[in-house]
Write a structure and sequence with these properties.
The complex is a heterodimer of chains A (about 160) and B (about 400).
Chain A lengths: L2 H8 L5 H8 L3 H14 L11 H4 L6 E9 L7 H9 L4 E6 L6 E7 L2 H12 L5 E8 L5 E2 L2 E2 L14
Antiparallel strand pairs in A: 1-3, 1-4, 2-3, 5-6
Chain B lengths: L5 H5 L5 H4 L4 H4 L7 H9 L4 E2 L11 H12 L12 H15 L9 E4 L1 H13 L5 E6 L5 H7 L3 E6 L10 H11 L3 E5 L11 H13 L3 E5 L24 E6 L12 E4 L2 H14 L5 H13 L1 H24 L12 E2 L10 H12 L1 E2 L1 E2 L11 E4 L4 H14 L10
Parallel strand pairs in B: 1-10, 3-4, 3-5, 5-6, 6-7
Antiparallel strand pairs in B: 2-8, 7-8, 9-12, 11-12
Helix pairs in contact in B: 5-12, 6-12, 7-8, 7-11, 9-10, 13-15
């Protein structure tokens, strides 16, 4: 991966000036490259990883992993069915996977009821969906390579040879 | 102390205080003039520290996990004096794989408690009273004292910023012929200057080493942190292995400083002598550390590459920023230190360090700690988070009555 992308993937707040300093590239070149990535969709979005358990202020919030089995039909590939499913705003992640089912989706809602309703009313009745299995998420430990629990501070001596 | 021992009251020894004198050899060791400064730093809170000589990464999990597993399984005993045979074999294979030279794992490799112990053993094994050893000035703090403790005499070779703090072949040749030195200590990439040598530069040095028949103690513990060219270890030069005691360890490459694990490779005769001292003084390195080290060599390559990439960016950031605020800084080729000149401030390095600490709470190591030639310089470690480095640079700029805008134009 390009070094500029590596830096931004770790911390999207790095400014072009900082990236120029870190990589030895010119400011102009960094800005141009980033603009290019934004235009061609390599950079999709700049977002913040939030520990929902701490941020929701007691408001309820549930997530479910749903395994979706699909009956492929003539002239209708996985992409088409996936698009119909991921277009629902409730679906926050959608992956095509190998194995005993086809799509793995993550659905978010205010409570168990809303997620169940989504499955019952929207997902299951779709004509190509053969079967669904819903797993409600109990706790997130790690997301996008980040451990959500704050690590205790490690002690290094302030000075050593 | 004598009051605690009632037997002494009735013995002829009445004045233990007189006897409890520190040995001259130890008294004569150069006092660390900056010990007081170190204490000041260690006792101060909320300091941004660029004074640290160890990685800010924690030992990679798969290595720690292996150490935990070994404890669970009850691996808590002594190992063979030389170190676990599996680890020695792993080192031999690693060197072959990484650099294309190798050592016999039975006869030519010794596992030590860090490179620090290996250094001590190497000099104690080869030095007779009065033997001369060539060492670069500036250099890592323990080199001179270790040679002196072994009874040797240090001949310091001054280096300066004009050749990137590197020893030159001419300089080594001249000093070796003038002093009849027995050995030379080479450290690259170097602490504190970050200086390292290309293969071409080493070729010229190797020629002098052969010509003057020098033993080389080569401390290459920062080898994996070489940024601008490939690191070439001394034992890889043809016909040089008989001259070289090669030292390396796990502290810097795998962020394992607390495990205290290093190794020495060299001619069987020298390794046998070092092992003799090691078995009496240390017995063996810790088994937990040895097991962790084995894991590091087996599958730590990716960790090293990741850390190196991160260090490289921080190095660029530091060199660019320091030059921008008027602290002239050469581009260090390795390790994780920048070594800027502070001559423009008019302060000596210890004053600069003290004042910066007091006024801006930034800690660094005054150059003078590493030798007379390093007066006018300070060592800053960039083994610290980018956020820390950024804040430190801003504070140093403010100490110099300058401003720097890191994030915006």
């Amino acid at each position: 991966m390009d070094e500029i992308l590596e830096i931004l993937a770790k911390d999207a707040r790095r400014t072009p000036q900082e990236i120029a300093r870190l990589t030895g590239k010119s400011l102009q070149a960094v800005k141009k490259t980033i603009a290019l990535y934004e235009k061609d969709g390599t950079i999709v979005q700049y977002k913040t990883v939030i520990n929902q358990d701490l941020a929701m202020d007691g408001a309820s919030f549930v997530r479910a992993l749903i395994e979706v089995s699909i009956t492929p039909q003539k002239d209708v590939g996985f992409d088409y069915i996936a698009e119909r499913i991921y277009s629902f705003p409730e679906v926050v992640n959608c992956y095509l996977v190998s194995g005993s089912y086809d799509l793995l989706i993550v659905v978010e809602g205010d409570n168990i009821q809303t997620v169940s309703n989504f499955v019952a009313a929207k997902l299951s009745p779709m004509e190509n969906v053969r079967q669904t299995t819903t797993h409600f998420l109990l706790k997130k430990y790690k997301e996008d390579g980040k451990i959500l629990k704050k690590a205790p501070q490690r002690k290094r001596l302030n000075i050593s040879y | 102390m004598h009051e605690l021992d009632p037997r002494l009251k009735h013995s002829g020894v009445t004045n233990i205080k007189e006897k409890m004198q520190i040995a001259k050899r130890v008294q004569q060791l150069a006092p660390s003039g900056i010990r007081a400064f170190f204490d000041l730093v260690l006792n101060m809170k909320d300091v941004i520290s660029l004074g640290v000589g160890e990685p800010d990464f924690v030992t990679p999990w798969h290595i720690r996990e292996q150490a935990i597993f070994s404890l669970e399984k009850g691996f808590t005993s002594y190992t063979s004096n030389k170190g676990m045979p599996e680890l020695r074999r792993e080192i031999a294979q690693f060197l072959e794989r990484r650099y294309g030279f190798t050592y016999d794992s039975e006869e030519e490799i010794l596992i030590t408690v860090g490179v620090s112990e290996a250094l001590d053993l190497a000099f104690r094994a080869i030095i007779n009273p009065g033997d001369k050893v060539l060492i670069s000035d500036p250099s890592y703090v323990s080199y001179g004292p270790v040679v002196e403790l072994a009874g040797g005499k240090v001949v310091y070779l001054k280096t300066d910023v004009h050749n990137g703090f590197k020893l030159t072949p001419q300089q080594i040749d001249e000093a070796a012929s003038r002093t009849k030195a027995k050995a030379i200590l080479i450290n690259y990439p170097a602490n504190p200057t970050g200086a390292s040598y290309t293969k071409k530069e080493l070729n010229d040095i190797v020629r002098v080493i052969k010509k003057r028949n020098l033993i080389v103690v080569s401390d290459e513990v920062y080898d994996e942190l070489t940024y601008d060219f490939e690191h070439t270890p001394l034992p890889s030069f043809s016909g040089l292995k008989n001259h070289v005691i090669y030292l390396n360890g796990f502290s810097k490459s795998y962020a394992m400083t607390g495990f205290r694990l290093g190794y020495a490779c060299g001619p069987a005769l020298v390794i046998a002598a070092m092992t003799k001292i090691h078995q009496y003084t240390m017995l063996c390195a810790s088994i937990t550390g040895q097991i962790a080290a084995k894991e590091a060599l087996k599958s730590g390559f990716k960790d090293v590459a990741e850390m190196k990439k991160e260090y490289m960016r921080r190095r660029r950031f530091m060199v660019t920023s320091l030059n921008e605020i008027g602290l002239t800084c050469h581009n260090p080729e390795g390790a994780f230190y920048v070594f800027p000149s502070i001559k423009s401030t008019g302060e000596i390095s210890l004053d600069f360090a003290k004042n910066l600490l007091r006024k801006k709470k930034v800690a660094l190591v005054p150059g003078v700690a590493f030798g007379k030639s390093a007066e006018g310089y300070v060592r800053m470690s960039y083994a610290s988070s980018y956020e820390n480095l950024k804040e430190a640079v801003v504070r140093i700029a403010s100490y110099l009555n300058k401003t720097i805008s890191v994030e915006n134009e």
